[in-house]
From TrEMBL:
Gene Ontology biological process terms, A to Z: cell differentiation; methylation; spliceosomal snRNP assembly
Encoding gene (name): PRMT7
Catalyzed chemical reaction(s): L-arginyl-[protein] + S-adenosyl-L-methionine = N(omega)-methyl-L-arginyl-[protein] + S-adenosyl-L-homocysteine + H(+)
Cell compartment(s), UniProt: Cytoplasm, Cytosol; Nucleus
Stored PANTHER family: PROTEIN ARGININE N-METHYLTRANSFERASE, PROTEIN ARGININE N-METHYLTRANSFERASE 7
PROSITE patterns tied to this protein: SAM_MT_PRMT
Gene3D superfamilies: Hnrnp arginine n-methyltransferase1, Vaccinia Virus protein VP39
Organism per entry: Alligator mississippiensis (American alligator)
Annotated family: Belongs to the class I-like SAM-binding methyltransferase superfamily. Protein arginine N-methyltransferase family. PRMT7 subfamily.
Protein name stated in the entry: Protein arginine N-methyltransferase
GO molecular function: histone H4R3 methyltransferase activity; protein-arginine omega-N monomethyltransferase activity
Length: 698
């Protein structure tokens, strides 16, 4: 046992603080990272991925068989072994020995126990290192080079987790030339699409305002219009995007393939393919996905293709660890049906990006390798994809316009508290005498400055880059604020109630406000509903056995991590991507009155929700509703329950909070139609957190 002086000190993590609206460094104990990473991991999702597991097992068995047929011993290198599942498959298929490499120590420890539990310890050696640090030789981690290479190093973009450099190193130093590889190859596909909805995730559209005397339009700065954006992929559950939200302009094309059985290069490269649009339209977005062939002949295939690119008879496997990619072209281009265009896909070690060229532009040889997009306007650094969509939602904007018309007067002095909001412009156009906007960062300051300038408002709206508690009368030109406005939206918010920072900021600025202050929104309410998920429950559910192998140890590991302090909280998910049905009616459970300052005491509530439909109670969904005025509200969660089965539609611009019940961790617990869920919630104003507890009632 180590002496106290030898114990590792706690380390720092960065977390959102809802009371300050800032990301703050906190000291955590030595167990924190282990529990956090395991609890939030997708290991359970992968173990539930039947299609993936079966295809890997088939591919591994075939590879071992081919090596044996050549009269060789089957020596396997498994990079990124995780639970050790693929290594156990290899040994079960007849491999003579397997080196299982896992860099994450808690996971490597679990793999050792799982391998031992299943009786494979003598033929599987778990190596707790990054694969690039593994040595080969009599005194090395591996006695000899392997002749079968097994990996699962892929993300939604295929190469985002460093698969290419890992393969490159393995072929140079860890495996024999001409080795078998499972998977044998990966192929990336692309499809050209027009989608106003998705393009609204990338550009700021004109915003229309009906003022008292005339119509006004908020225009986007030219720098923003022409900005190529950022290269980061937007990975989503493409199967959940409604068919009428996009128009397919091209057939599916093969962009590039990687043969994992040969030397792989991680050097930057580009691939150009010819496209003939099957329909005229505005090229805006690239859909992309990949598949992997587990054998050289391509008969064992695992695909990420969306439903329209798969045979109709195929049962599509749900998975959350691999989804589909959405890439945004630097600029939209009008295309004619049958017109030849060239799609260039560029990649570096970890990412892919695209550019589209007309035939007449193809001769520009200097542009063959397209540089990775870099945001020049800063808006893509300030606003994420859903935030762009939210700002472009004219119906949502109209609600704010209606509410502002109710509260603004010709002598109103407004202070806006939100990150990168268009509300200051709305307030000015709707007749406020003076408008100030509080921006928490240099980036939001810069973006708003550009928007104001593009609309000739740089002298009309004053930007204050200060924390609210530091506001002085001179910042506000010695005027008292009569109206505080906010969406509210803050870039540091993760869970719905993190935007309650608006309340804290309004409280901190109290000395600069008139006594009978008008606040918009005037209040917020927390709402809740019990649901059954179609698939999302899998990310938290135990697997027990996977393809005949006992993985209880992994289940216990996840369960213990979910009981750790951090993991008892709800977690954010964009529920428009994850179908669910309501088992209870939605219920308002808490109210926060922004007209008053933040209270010193806790706000607590308890009650129960009756289950109205038969189903598995997987969890509670929580979301905020902002009451702009007494009769105008903005709902960040449930849009509607669309039919008698309880199918739900969710606000697509926001993440909702999901609290998974023990019925997910303990699948044998099935809800009775007449049962209810008891709840207890407590909001701590000192931390801005909401503690919650739920219990299934008989």
């Amino acid at each position: 046992m180590r002496a106290a002086a030898e114990r590792p000190e706690g380390f720092l993590t960065i977390r959102a603080n809802p009371t300050t609206g800032a990301m703050e460094w906190l000291e955590e104990d030595e167990d924190y990272d282990y529990h956090q990473e395991i609890a939030r991991s997708r290991y359970a999702d992968m173990l539930h991925d039947k299609d993936r597991n079966v295809k890997y097992y088939q591919g591994i068995s075939a590879a071992v068989r081919r090596v044996k047929e050549r009269g060789e011993r089957a020596i396997v290198l498994d990079i990124g072994t995780g639970t050790g599942l693929l290594s156990m498959m290899a040994v079960s298929a007849g491999a003579d020995f397997c080196y299982a490499v896992e860099v994450f120590k808690p996971m490597a420890n679990a793999a050792v126990k799982i391998v031992e539990k299943n009786g494979f310890s003598e033929k599987i050696k778990v190596i707790n290192k990054h694969s690039t640090e593994v040595t080969v030789g009599p005194d090395g981690d591996m006695q000899c080079r392997a002749n079968i290479l097994i990996t699962e190093l892929f993300d939604t973009e295929l190469i985002g987790e460093g698969a290419l450099p890992s393969y490159e190193h393995a072929h140079k130093y860890l495996v024999q030339e001409g080795c078998e590889a499972v998977p044998h190859r990966a192929t990336v596909y692309a499809q050209l699409v027009e989608s106003k909805r998705m393009w609204s995730w990338n550009k700021l559209f004109p915003v229309h305002i009906q003022a008292e005397d005339d119509k006004k339009i908020i225009v986007s700065p030219s720098e923003m219009e022409n900005c190529p954006g950022v290269s980061s992929v937007y990975d989503i559950q493409l199967n959940q995007v409604p068919w009428n939200d996009f128009t397919i302009l091209s057939d599916v094309v093969t962009v590039f393939s990687v043969d994992f059985s040969k030397q792989v290069s991680s050097a930057s490269a580009y691939h150009r393919v010819v496209l003939k649009p099957v329909k005229s339209g505005m090229a805006q977005v690239i859909f992309s996905w990949w598949d992997i062939d587990m054998d050289p002949s391509g008969t064992i295939k695992c695909t990420m293709a969306p439903y329209w690119a798969q045979p109709t008879s195929l049962d599509i496997q749900w998975r959350d660890h691999w989804m589909q990619c959405v890439y945004f072209l630097p600029n939209e281009k009008p295309l004619l049906q049958g017109e030849i265009v060239y799609l260039t896909a560029c990649r570096d070690e970890y990412s892919v990006w695209y550019k589209l060229q007309k035939a007449r532009d193809k001769e520009d040889k200097t542009d063959a390798h397209v540089a990775s997009p870099v945001c020049r306007c800063q808006a893509h650094l300030l606003w994420n994809r859903p935030r762009f969509g939210e700002l472009n939602d004219q119906n949502r904007t109209n609600e704010y316009i209606k509410a502002l018309k109710k509260v603004l007067k010709t002598d109103s002095v407004c202070l806006c508290i939100s990150d990168g909001s268009l509300l200051p412009v709305l307030a000015h156009y709707l007749g406020a005498q003076q408008v100030f906007t509080l921006e928490n960062s240099a980036v939001s300051h810069s973006v708003m400055e550009k928007i104001f300038k593009a609309n000739h408002l740089e002298d009309k709206i004053k930007i204050i880059e200060k924390r609210p508690e530091l506001l002085t009368p001179s910042d506000l030109e010695n005027k008292k604020v009569s109206v505080v406005i906010g969406e509210p939206f803050f870039t540091t918010s993760l869970l719905p109630w993190h935007n309650l920072y608006f309340w804290y900021a309004r409280t901190a600025a109290a000395n600069q406000l008139v006594r009978n202050i008008t606040v918009l929104p005037q209040s917020a309410s927390l709402h809740m509903m019990v649901v059954e998920f179609k698939d999302l429950w899998r990310i938290r559910s135990p697997c027990r056995t996977c393809e005949g192998f006992d993985v209880h140890i992994m289940d216990d590991m996840i369960g213990n991590s979910l009981n750790f302090r951090e993991s008892k909280e709800a977690e954010p998910h964009p529920l428009w991507e994850y179908p669910c049905k309501s088992l209870s009616d939605p219920q308002q459970v808490m109210t926060f009155d922004f007209r008053q300052t933040v209270p010193q005491h806790r706000l607590s509530t308890e009650g129960s929700m009756k289950l109205l439909r038969t189903g598995k109670s997987h969890g509670a969904i929580l979301w905020m509703v902002y009451h702009l005025t007494a009769d105008i509200s903005i709902n960040t969660g449930l849009v509607q329950i669309s039919n008698e089965k309880g199918n739900c539609q969710w606000n697509p611009h926001c993440k909702q909070a999901v609290y998974f019940f023990s019925s997910v961790i303990e699948p044998e617990a099935v809800a009775d139609p007449s049962s209810a869920i008891a709840y207890s919630l407590s909001f701590d104003p000192k931390t801005g957190k909401i503690a919650m507890d739920f219990k299934l009632l008989p």
